[in-house]
Fold:
Amino acid sequence: MSEENIEQSEIIATKENLVSVMQEENALLDKILEQQTILHKCVRDKDWETLNKNIENLQNLSDQFVELEEKRMKLSENIDMVSDETVSPVLSEVRGKLQKSKVENKVLNEYITTTRKFLQGVFDSVVPQRRNVLYSNKGQIVKPELSSVVLNQMI
Structure:
């Protein structure tokens, strides 16, 4: 075989490995999106035990994705993934799922932030803190966090 044929066969093998890694990423992203949906439901339903389990699962899946991403980066060093017709469709699918995952994270973060602000407002009006006013280094008033609140609950 000529040197050019050997080079071409190496490029083809690299592209096949790259597509395989990206398909693994694609399957892993499906699992991550499923876990994100469960996570969102757990937060909404205040199911903290299941939430903790799913956070661990999501972290494991994220670690696996990082490993695959490192493999993908090594394989794609000399390949134009956007214009290559064998790699581009899989790349588009992975990017779409990554974007969907990013949106899911943003929605969950906004929900948590809004809920936290609402609850902080309720606690501030129900149990106002009697402390001196604190200022940040930019001159803005800093509200202290609640030190403790005890609620009686009848079961």
Q: What stands out?
A: The beta strands are 134-135, 141-142. The CA atoms of residues 100 and 106 lie 10 Å apart.
